[in-house]
From TrEMBL:
Residues 72-265 form the Alpha/beta hydrolase fold-3 domain. It comes from Tabrizicola soli. This is Alpha/beta hydrolase. Coiled coil: none annotated. It comes from the Bacteria. PANTHER family: AB HYDROLASE SUPERFAMILY PROTEIN C4A8.06C (PTHR48081), ALPHA_BETA HYDROLASE FOLD-3 DOMAIN-CONTAINING PROTEIN-RELATED (PTHR48081:SF8).
């Protein structure tokens, strides 16, 4: 239940530009709705912050800030269908400015034009080309990619840490959040089904990297900070992933945000709750940036 007037106003503003039916539209129409909504909330970059577009590993990226010994690798959300360098530009700029770390945002390929594992292959290519240790951060679909990157790099160079923001991790649909929040604002369970079909087609998902919660082994992964929105079908994915990481001996923290819906990062300037959560995310990035890389 959401009673916070700031959050309710954020939801109204979002749905005015990005109605629920946009998730059922064609990919092109969905992207038009989504881009218009993101532009509505996009804040100016911090003054004086250097920003440049460049390729890393053959993948288009946007780099924020000056070169630092440790970086942040940011993977945007959008259900693998929408989003890009512009949709999360202000979030990335603020993270780079607040942490003082160079941030690399990845413009990975989108579905349905490019199905799994194309997005992960792009992220892996950037990771291999990145010439410094980094904390990997992702929201929503980007949270899945961040977790998948850590899994795909097990036994090799791991990120310093993984920060997963309301991530989709392939959770069991019998988990309570999928039913209690099935009709939640901003993201419904039926929307998740549509995004999965766009990314994987019909039929079951076979690759455990596409569903990190179903990976057989989680030992040897980077330490994790996982934050979920309480009013979100994906809430229990974060909780359950942290529980599994801890059982595997991985340092992991779960933070659940009452009265916040999926996608609340865009509310960080309008909502006190969202702003406090963003500050906790920034603190986690800085803390993990000081960790020693984890190896299996």
């Amino acid at each position: 239940m959401i009673a916070d007037p700031q959050v309710l106003e954020f939801i109204r503003s979002t749905e005015a530009a990005y109605p629920a039916e946009a998730n059922g539209a064609s990919a092109a129409d969905n992207r038009r709705y989504y881009d218009a909504m993101c532009a509505r909330f996009r804040a100016p970059r911090p003054p004086g912050l250097p920003v440049r577009d460049q390729e890393l590993g053959g993948v288009s990226c946007r780099v924020y800030g000056v070169r630092t010994p440790v970086a942040v690798l940011y993977l945007h959300g959008g259900g693998f269908v929408v989003g890009g360098l512009d949709s999360h530009d202000d979030v990335c700029a603020e993270i780079a400015d607040a942490t003082g770390l160079m941030l690399v945002a990845v413009d990975y390929r989108l579905a349905p034009e490019h199905r799994w594992p194309a997005p992960l292959r792009d992220v892996e290519a950037v990771w291999q080309a990145l010439d410094r240790p980094a904390v990997v951060v992702g929201d929503s679909a980007g949270g899945l990619l961040a977790a998948a990157l850590c899994l795909s790099c097990r036994g090799q160079r791991q990120p310093l840490g993984q920060v997963l923001i309301y991530p989709s991790l392939g959770g069991d649909r019998s988990a309570s959040s999928y039913t209690v929040n099935a009709e939640a604002p901003m993201l419904r369970t039926v929307d998740l089904d549509g995004y999965q079909r766009a990314l994987h087609g019909e039929g079951p998902v076979a690759d455990p990297l596409a569903q990190p919660l179903r990976a057989p082994r989680l030992g040897g992964l980077a330490p994790a900070f996982v934050v979920s929105a309480d009013v979100d079908p994906l809430r229990d994915d974060g909780r359950d992933y942290v529980a599994r990481l801890r059982l595997a001996g991985v340092a992991a923290e779960w933070r659940n945000e009452p009265e916040l819906p999926h996608g609340y990062l865009r509310a960080r300037r309008e909502s006190d709750r969202a702003r406090r959560s963003f500050q906790a995310i920034l603190a986690a990035i800085v803390r993990l940036a000081g960790c020693v890389p984890v190896r299996a």
